[in-house]
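Teaching assistant here, posting this on the class forum so everyone can see the example we discussed in section. The complex has four components, and the goal was to see what a joint structure prediction looks like when all of them are supplied at once.
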Amino acid sequence: MSGHLEQIRLDSYKPLRELVCEHIREAIINGVFAPGERLMEIQMADEMGVSRTPVREAIRKLEMEGFVVMIPRRGTYVSNMSIKDINDVYEIRISLDTLAAGLAAERISDEELEELQRLLVKVGNAIEENDMTKVVEADIEFHDVLYKASRNERLRNIINNLREQITVIRGVSMRYPGRLKDTQEEHRRLVESIAARDVEKSQEMARIHLENAERTLMAAMSERKD
Amino acid sequence: MSGHLEQIRLDSYKPLRELVCEHIREAIINGVFAPGERLMEIQMADEMGVSRTPVREAIRKLEMEGFVVMIPRRGTYVSNMSIKDINDVYEIRISLDTLAAGLAAERISDEELEELQRLLVKVGNAIEENDMTKVVEADIEFHDVLYKASRNERLRNIINNLREQITVIRGVSMRYPGRLKDTQEEHRRLVESIAARDVEKSQEMARIHLENAERTLMAAMSERKD
DNA sequence: GTAAAGAATGTTGTATACAGTATTATTTTT
DNA sequence: AAAAATAATACTGTATACAACATTCTTTAC
């Protein structure tokens, strides 16, 4: 119940609330705080060596991002993702990722396209090496370039937020036999379609990719129900 | 520069920050605060008769909702919507409203369907009476029932947020000659498709509706550039 | 023995105080 | 006179203090 969070350092010049927010978000994503667990302001503030003010502001942000739920005068609790929640997220993401892929096919620059291909290789290497941390890292980079190429900042923010919300359980599907290889192949085809500036096909590839990702995740989760 | 905001009353039991947030949001939507205008915490707190704490928390929320931009150590400014921003919002909304309409066609209950048809009439009456306040009110109700029927709370939140972000300028398109009548007809067809549980057609109707709305808004805005 | 009521404890909600930084105005120097 | 530097002012960022409310435990009454 204690020693969950590391002390905050003020190295970069971000407001404290941002650092605190990222800190808590990561702790939730990494399972340091279990779903449903109560988060107490004073305790977290003490552990991170800051006052309650930035902690409160961080919690407000996390609430909007869907990581925690606040009950007035009762407290803050870590959200627990139900099957329904995951379904809801994927329903939206199938729409938005399809949109983003189509826009990217129209708007991506040659430099970004090269970057995308470079990151595809990077993810591939990480998979070969079986280095999960590197896979996750490169995968995030890959998607970020893709969403940036849509030239729609709001879209990028919404998708990234949805992605983060299911990060907690994405690890489950990553460990699903063969899923990484499939993902890589799906990404490859998507990039191929975008490189060909084929809007329709890019959209279809994105949709297929997301639908597969959801299917695997669902399968992995129901298997894990032990 | 002063007297912009009314005093806050604590009638219901919502946290102060929520009341303050709604207050400021409405002031922005109603043009009380001009786009680009600087918002100062102490001043707003004084005007509403509360302390800075709930005001700060409200501003954080409005920042995430896209109504204001914060520059660290500089202050908060009301976002100003560019043509690009409107384009971005509609790009996303065309996707999400299409999704929502399709889901609603699958999942709506008979009671909700009746409610939808009732609200359609209500909007129609308001248009006949040329009562803009009533039109807006009924329109919001109509869409809320529709989004609820999608049975995807996240989707509903995201769309509602996007809707609010462009509320500031939606009045412009409402006053566009003939647009209200067209809107009504488009809504009617959408409800018809949903009532028939025709997913494909509902999606198409929603897409057409949104595309028309965007087109009108763009036309109205460029005409207003005087 | 059990249930209800009250008191004590702890946590959230709000206010305020203080510190640090950005901006603006004034003064000095070129 | 114009530009630069410095000082003053004002706002944001953070900390802390206080009040209100929820929860839990203890005590009392039936």
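For the discussion questions: Residues 175 and 220 of chain B are 9 Å apart (CA to CA). The longest helix of chain B spans residues 83-107. Think about how each of these relates to the inputs above.
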